[in-house]
Protein 1
Amino acid sequence: MNCFLCGSNKNIEVHHIDCNHSNNEPHNRVDLCRSCHVAIHKHYGRLDIIEIRKLKKLGTIKYLR
């Protein structure tokens, strides 16, 4: 399992895209490393899947910082 944004395989956590932890539908979950997960919540609050995919195309979470 790798981080959806940076590709790391360390400290993987599940991010709920709609921030509803009881919504465990596959389309609402994305695997993120701890660093990317914290960055998303700290810098952006809620990011929807379209925004996450755009960030992934950039190739790195560094664009969040």
Protein 2
Amino acid sequence: MIRSAKGRIIVGSVVILAGLALLMTWEPSARRQPSVATGAPELAPLTLYCAAGIKPPVEKTARDFENQYGQAIRIEYGGSGALLSKLRIAREGDLFLAADSGYMEIARQQGLLAEVIPLAVVRPVIAVAKGNPKSIMSVKDLLRPEVKISLCNPDAASVGRQTRLALQKTGQWDDLETAARTRGVFKPTVTDAANDVKIGAVDAAIVWDATVAQYPELEIALPLTDDASFAMRVEIGVLTLCRRPAQALKFARYLAASDRGLREFAARGYTPVEGDPWEETPELRLLSGGVNRVAIEDTIRAFEAREGVRVTRVYNGCGILVAQMKAGERPDAYFACDTSFMSEVSDLFLDSTDLSQTDMVIAVPKGNPRKIATLRDLTADGLKVGLGHPTQGALGALTERLLRTHNLLDAVMKNVVSQTPTADLLVNQLRTESLDAVIVYRVNCSQVLDALDVIPIDVPGATAVQPFAIGRASTRKELTRRFLRALESADSRRRFQDVGFQWVGPSPEQP
């Protein structure tokens, strides 16, 4: 009996210990890392609403992404217009891909889209069977009684919408619509229309040029229009409804990468955009004048978190930054303190965008003990004045130009005891009472108004404008464009204004 009880105790102890060991090593499936080796996606799927005509490159790229990263992509195909209507009602999903940038603009205006990334360009064409048996050589030929045509529904499919717009412009739409209704057919997607020609149900269809490239049985009879404005950009956007924007943007970047998704677009007859090469965690290099730092840091951190990227920022006087670039530095972006320091390296950048401006002011200790009121007062005997360095930063160069214009440079320089590349160093010296007055930007004083007074400089030329530009040599131009859009956003504009800048950039409501 005793031995039997002891045996039961020993066996029970072993079972309990084994159970504890199992619990210590067990991990719920929701927390497991995806098994990339087996290609088994274990992350919650992302939902993509995708134009049906774009299925071949998207489907292949989505499966490649799943296999590499274990992230499932659930794709719902349909006409771009129909999908947009569904989005308005469903109010859920992660990504939207339309074959027509017009639908993306509608979605953006309705508050459904956050970021938009271009993929390729498509053009509407008249497709016929190989050999063009009905000798269709013009839009007018589609109106011949013996010609049966397939058109896409203008309210459901992008190519149908563009067909209607293009032919309304030439006055041919009403006749073509009548012909389609009497001896042809309207279809919901571009692939449906192309299939009609393939099986011989109709003699011609208006589809995208890239669609024809995917059908060996078809050929292009002619472009629908010579109007370049009807070359449509295929784009993918992240929905504002998306709950995992970093993961959705990761797939969008993968699809838009020149050596990933765009390679699939090119192989299937699309004209892809330039695109960035694929990087799982891209790193942007930003050179910025020191004055901009207080306005952009929060925007940069939010951009990094949302995009799943890194932004390496180098803040310094613009004279120093320009010298670095002339010596070979090639950043992805440059945010200058003033347009004069952008023009010196303009050949290294695409066209710049002015975002903000700030006035130059005289800053003095609280109470203004030396009773300084104008630039001329800085010439008084015994003053200790601080200025920006004229070759190391935009502030110093602008100050020198301002004083020279008003014939005060020599008289003020005799009182100058400190010249620094950035204004924040001057403000710190003023706060430690080692200086009596400094010329800085108004924005440099916005956070320390309890310790100093600000005196306006009410003369022409006392304003600096801050431009942003994307590097010509950058391999991350699309990512940098989205960074610029983040800087132009309503939240970013508010941050600029909160620290004392005046906003001169595009309105956040503008596309």
Protein 3
Amino acid sequence: MLRSRKNFLFEIKRILKVGGILILSTPLNETQRRFKPENYFHLREYNWEEFGDLVSKYFLIKERFSQISPISELNTKLSRLSSYSRIKRIIPPTLKNFLKKILKANSGKILKGFVRGLHTQIIIAIKI
């Protein structure tokens, strides 16, 4: 089992061929909450500089992007409502599925570089 982010990146570098491409993404979190994220499945989130510094220790970064996902934006806003769990229970499944389809059709605006307020950062790097 990999015990740290450094071990994770080292292992990727070890198995990737020279010239191999790494595409890695993580939530973009510019707040102090990045050390204890709201998402239960995230152990740690990174701001723009931290993520770049970490990956550049192991790979040559070629491109960086910011991405906004309407689904994650909506989930974030809804999860902050104290009544969200009650709302989730009363929305009929057909309406939930309809909303998911609309959001999915409009998801994924990707912009080159750092854009404040977006939710995800993506790095494309190569092993040298």
